[in-house]
Amino acid sequence: MSKSKDKVVNTIRTIPINEIRFLNPRFRNRRNSREIVQSIAKVGLKRPITVSPRKTETDSANYDLVCGQGRIEAFIQLGQTEIPAIVIEAEESAQNLINMVAVSAVSGTVLLGLLAAKHF
Question: pTM to 2 decimals?
Answer without folding.
Answer: 0.69
